[in-house]
Amino acid sequence: MITAVQKPFEEISEMVKGSQNLLILGCGSCVTVCMAGGEKEVGILASILRLANKEKGVSMEIVEDTIERQCDREFFDDVKEKIERADAVLSMACGVGVQFCSEIFSRQIVLPALNTRFYGATEQQGVWTERCAGCGDCVLAKFGGICPVARCSKSLLNGPCGGSQDGKCEVDPENIDCGWQLIYDRLKSLNLLSRLEENEPVKDWSSGRDGGPGKIVREDMLL
Amino acid sequence: MGEKKKIVAFCCENSSYKAAGAVTESSALDLVDIVRLPCSGKVEIGMVLKCLEKDHPGVLILSCPVDNCKYITGNLRAKKRVEMVKKALQNAGIDENRVHMDFISSIDTYKFVNIVKEMNDRLLNTHPVNR
C-alpha cells in the first residue's frame, strides 16, 4: 500500500487560512489502513480545526466526507456537490488522490493534508516499513525475495557497502536493517548463496523515475 | 440559551464506573456526564475531541490502576491516546488541561469525587464554558 503521515497541524492550519467553507475529504483505501487519512482521521482533523478556529475566533464551516478511493474517477460522483460547494478541499489522500481530485475538479483548490511516504507493508500494528521502490523492473527473483533497491539505503545491486555493521545500516543503525545482510541471510537459508557470485549488470532505471512520469496502457481494457 | 454542559467522564466499567456508582451523595455527580466503557482502551481520540467541540468544558478518562487492567493493556492504550489528544490540543493552541486521565480502582469512591472536583476547579480558572 501507499503509506503517508499527516502534515504538522501548523502547516495545515496555514494552508486552509482564509477558507470559509472547507471540505475535508478522506480516502478509504491505503491511507485508511495506515491510519493517516481515513474516516476516523478526517473526524479528528476536523475537530481540531474547529476547536482551533473557535479559540482564534475564526469563522470557517468545515464539512467532512470520505470516499472509497481518490485515485478512481467514479468515487468522486458521491461528493461532487460537496466539492463544488466548498471554497477549498483538504484532501487526506496520498499525493495521487490529491492530484486526481484537483484534475477532476479543476476549478477547485485542492490541498494536501498528508505527506506521502512510500510503498510499504504493515510490519506490526502501528508500524509500516518500505518494501518496494516502484522501479518498474522487478529484481526480487534474483535476491531471495528481498529488494536491494528499496531495502538498501543506497540501492546497491552487487553487495553491501562499507557502512554495514552488525546487520545494521550506517544511515540509521538503530532503525534500518542492512538490506544486503537480509539478502545474504535469506539466500543462505534457501541454500542459494551461489547466486551472489553472479554480477548484476548496471540497472536500466528508465522503467522507473528516470524514464519520466509512468504510464500503463492496456489496449484490451480500453473502451 | 443552550443547556449547561458538564465535564464528560469516560469510565471503565471494571473500575471507575463502579466507583462512580457507589457515590451516594456528592455535588460532584452534578458536574459530570458519565460514559460507561467496557475498557478505557475503548476511548478514541475523536470521541474526546468531539466532546470539547460540543462545548463540554473538559473530559476525564478514568481507567483501571496501572498493571491492573482487566484486558491487560487497555489502560496503557488509553494513556497513549490521551497523550496524543493533549499534543494535538497543544498544537492547535488549546488548553491541554481540558483533558485529564487518572487511574482508579472500583473501591476508590472518594478518589473519584476528588478527581471530578479538582477537574472542575481547574476548569473554572481556565475554561469557564457555559458556567
| Main sheet record of chain A | 4 strands, parallel
Report the major sheet of chain B: 4 strands, parallel
Helix content of chain B: 25-40%
Net shape of chain B: globular
Low-confidence stretches of chain B: none
Q: What fraction strand of chain B?
A: 15-25%
Q: Please identify the top-level CATH class of chain B.
A: Alpha Beta
For the largest interface, the chains and their residue counts are: A-B, 15 and 13 residues
Give the neighbour order of strands across the main sheet of chain A: 3-2-4-5
> How many structural domains does the protein architecture of chain A include?
2
Number of DSSP helices of chain B?
4
Distance between the termini of chain A: 28 Å
Count of helical stretches of chain A: 7
List the helices and strands and how they pair.
The complex is a heterodimer of chains A (223) and B (131).
Chain A: E1 2-6, H1 9-15, E2 21-27, H2 30-33, H3 39-56, E3 61-67, H4 80-85, E4 88-91, H5 95-104, E5 110-112, E6 114-124, E7 127-132, H6 148-151, E8 164-165, E9 168-169, H7 179-189
Chain B: E1 7-12, H1 16-21, E2 32-37, H2 45-53, E3 59-63, H3 74-91, E4 99-103, H4 109-126
Parallel strand pairs in B: 1-2, 1-3, 3-4
